[in-house]
Design goal:
- It is a single chain.
- The protein is α+β, with helices and mostly antiparallel strands and 181 residues long.
- It has one domain.
- It contains 5 helices and 6 strands.
- α1 packs antiparallel against α3, α1 packs across α4 and α1 runs antiparallel to α5.
- The radius of gyration is 19 Å and the shape is elongated.
- It starts with a helix and ends with a strand.
Length: 181
């Protein structure tokens, strides 16, 4: 149950930028959500947009913190056959989210599109790439192990060579995605 809740959190973090871009594009500010708070009218629109961005940044920090409650695993020296930096490989997905957010015309359409993206991201169990992890110093790697498994690693360590990979404690998000803290 903890793993499913964690994956829902990661999915929200990975897809929430779509909601923020839509809100910024449509100039939706906090006073639209809280009309009884008159003091919000005095804030510049930029303050609302920063508040929106603070939510997924905070939740990304929470997801990093909560990763210790996941199952643990290790990668012994020599177990990783190849490693490839994956930071840039997910950029097209995020550009796609941006273009979708900019082309959606209504809240109803946004919620439908967002729901579809959220469900597919959650069920795919593969696209937990969240660019906000980069703000916390994390990198993304595609690894192949000696046993033939393809692993996606979210790590605060910097790896260049497969022989450098020795991880005494990683946290299993699912069978193919791990986080090293």
């Amino acid at each position: 149950m903890v793993n499913i809740a964690y994956r829902v959190l990661l999915t929200f973090n990975a897809t929430s930028l779509l909601l923020i871009i839509f809100s910024v594009h449509k100039k939706v500010t906090l006073d639209n959500f809280f009309p009884s708070c008159n003091w919000l009218l005095m804030l510049p629109d930029f303050a609302s947009y920063l508040a929106y961005l603070a939510v997924p940044i905070s939740l990304t920090w929470v997801s990093i913190y909560l990763s210790v409650f996941l199952g643990r695993d290790e990668f012994k020296k020599g177990e990783v056959k190849s490693i490839e930096h994956a930071n840039n490989s997910f950029l097209p997905s995020y550009l796609g989210y941006f273009f979708v957010a900019l082309s959606v015309s209504s809240w109803e359409t946004l919620w439908f599109v967002y729901s579809v993206i959220f469900v597919f991201t959650f069920l795919s169990q593969a696209l937990y790439f969240n660019p906000l992890f980069l703000l916390f110093g994390y990198e993304f790697y595609n690894m192949n192990t000696e046993s033939g498994a393809e692993i996606f690693l979210i790590s605060s360590s910097r790896y260049k060579n497969p022989s450098d990979v020795e991880i005494s404690r990683s946290y299993r998000i699912n069978d193919y995605i791990f986080m090293e803290r």
